[in-house]
């Protein structure tokens, strides 16, 4: 795409080292993939890796944290309430964690854990 100029993209992650890779190899690979996928000229794309400022307010970081807690064998309620408490301590207005699937028995069900102010449609009041 001629005449578009340089593109700067930033990737916010909990662990920046995962994006950078060994000696910056992975970030160069990602830059190359973006250039080829979107048809940019060589050197037209600059990729930056930034660390998430407040981990408690990042949904992806909290989902990953919950995943590791559940894979580690922690009970579903305990893991979810821990995540909700961590998010609320990070000065969030409200938080809701929804877990669905085979939680205990063979039958699937869903559980919701929430705290704070959440705007929803439906019954007002």
Automatic annotation (TrEMBL):
UniProt xrefs under SUPFAM superfamilies: Prokaryotic type KH domain (KH-domain type II), Ribosomal protein S3 C-terminal domain
Domain Small ribosomal subunit protein uS3 C-terminal, residue spans: 68-120
Keyword line: Ribonucleoprotein, Ribosomal protein
InterPro entries, alphabetized: KH_dom-like_a/b, KH_sf_prok-type, Ribosomal_S3_C_sf, Ribosomal_uS3, Ribosomal_uS3_C
This protein's record includes keyword Ribosomal protein: yes
GO MF: RNA binding; structural constituent of ribosome
Cellular component terms (Gene Ontology): cytosolic small ribosomal subunit; nucleus
A Gene Ontology biological process term: translation
Family under the similarity heading: Belongs to the universal ribosomal protein uS3 family.
Protein name in the entry: 40S ribosomal protein S3
Natural source organism: Pseudo-nitzschia australis
């Amino acid at each position: 795409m001629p005449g578009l100029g340089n593109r700067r993209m930033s990737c916010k992650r909990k662990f920046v080292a995962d994006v950078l890779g060994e000696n910056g190899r992975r970030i160069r690979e990602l830059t190359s993939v973006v250039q080829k996928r979107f048809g940019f000229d060589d050197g037209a794309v600059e990729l930056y890796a930034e660390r998430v400022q407040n981990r408690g307010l990042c949904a992806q970081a909290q989902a990953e944290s919950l995943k590791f807690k559940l894979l580690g064998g922690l009970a579903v309620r305990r893991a979810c309430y821990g995540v909700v408490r961590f998010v609320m301590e990070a000065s969030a207005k409200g938080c809701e964690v929804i877990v669905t699937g085979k939680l205990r028995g063979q039958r699937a069900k869903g559980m919701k854990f929430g705290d704070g102010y959440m705007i929803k449609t439906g019954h007002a009041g």
